[in-house]
Amino acid sequence: GVMAADGCLEAGLYQRALAARGHAPVLWQPSEQAAFMGLVYRIKGGERGPALAAAMASLAGALAAQGAGALIAACTEIPLVLAQDDAPLPLFTSTDLLVARTLAFAGIAQGAGDG
What we know:
The chain is mainly alpha-helical. The protein is built from five helices and three strands, in the order E-H-H-H-H-E-E-H. It is globular, with a radius of gyration of 15 Å.
């Protein structure tokens, strides 16, 4: 399931990449996407906490219910409130993957103290 902001979805970045690899992207219904955007704006405004985390986990659950096999956290705000332990499916965050790929590209091993 693709957890992404409106602009990212409109650009089709993840949808094209998934389709090119033979996977159908699982996206929210319009009302769920609108709820997600509301959460993103609240996170950008500095809000955190269990209620916000629960709302994000609930939206992740909606993608799982639609048949997603994993979650792509395409927005950097998502891991600020949603941890793997709270997600109903494997959670891949764009931030963590970008760090790992950048370090690998630079030939730098990611150690236990990195993060």
